[in-house]
Amino acid sequence: MSRSTHNGVRRLSATRLAAALAFAVAIALVAAGCGDDSVEVTTTAAAGTPIAHGQQLAGESCSSCHGQNFEGVKSLGPALADSHFIQDHTDDEIIAFIKEGRSKDAPDNETGIAMPPYGGNPRLTDDDLADIVLFLRTMQ
Ligand code: HEC
């Protein structure tokens, strides 16, 4: 009896704590919005930066072959982190490469494995590819 009452009290206080936290967060958000505009702008930019967008797209379309952390996957795709290819080519050249891909028996194929055009995702736009390249540059 006293045990279940004790648990009940603990549950209640946990609920209260959650409510109090939610309230505090709400106040903080309002304060940030009203008090200091730069806080709000910074937060918005961080969530939607081109690099963050590129990271998301690369995770969806490229990491299946190039690795979760773009460290490369044996027999699937070379590393894109610490990559001479990325370091030695301009953004436009890298974008052109991604669009074209590389067939298995292309003379310049280095692995004997094919990379499909657009990494197999033809819905990627030029802007998407530019964001992906921006993201890849952060890992060199
Ligand atoms: C189906 C597997 C696959 C997918 C998906 C894929 N790639 Fe590749 N990628 C490869 C292979 C294999 C190579 C190496 C080709 C060769 O040997 O020349 C490669 C090579 C590359 C290279 C040149 C690297 C080097 O060292 O020569 C870049 C840059 C690249 N891929 C970017 C991407 C991007 C960006 C995406 C996503 C939009 C992507 N790839 C999706 C398989 C893939």
Description:
With 140 residues, this protein is mainly α. It has 2 domains: 2-46; 49-137, Cytochrome Bc1 Complex, Chain D, domain 2, CATH 1.10.760. Helix content is 63%, strand content 0%. Helix 3 crosses helix 7 (126-137) and helix 6 crosses helix 7 (126-137). Residues 17-35 and 39-45 have low confidence and may be disordered. Heme C binds at residues 58, 61-62, 64-66, 76-78, 80, 83, 85, 94, 97-98, 102, 109-111, 113, 115-116, 119-120, 132.
Rough shape?
Answer: globular
- Write out the distinct hetero groups bound to the structure: heme C
Main sheet specs: none
* Amino- and carboxy-terminal Cα gap: 63 Å
Mean pLDDT across every amino acid position: 80
What class do helices, strands and sheet pairing give?
mainly alpha
Number of strands: 0
Helix content: 55-70%
Radius of gyration from CA coordinates: 24 Å
Properties at a glance:
140 residues; mainly alpha; Cytochrome Bc1 Complex, Chain D, domain 2; 2 domains; 63% helix; 0% strand; binds heme C
Outline the fold blueprint.
Blueprint: H1 2-35, H2 37-47, H3 50-61, H4 63-66, H5 84-88, H6 91-100, H7 126-137
Helix pairs in contact: 3-7, 6-7
Structure summarized in a few sentences:
By secondary structure, the chain is mainly α. Helix content is 63%, strand content 0%. It folds into two domains: 2-46; 49-137, Cytochrome Bc1 Complex, Chain D, domain 2 (Orthogonal Bundle), CATH 1.10.760.10.
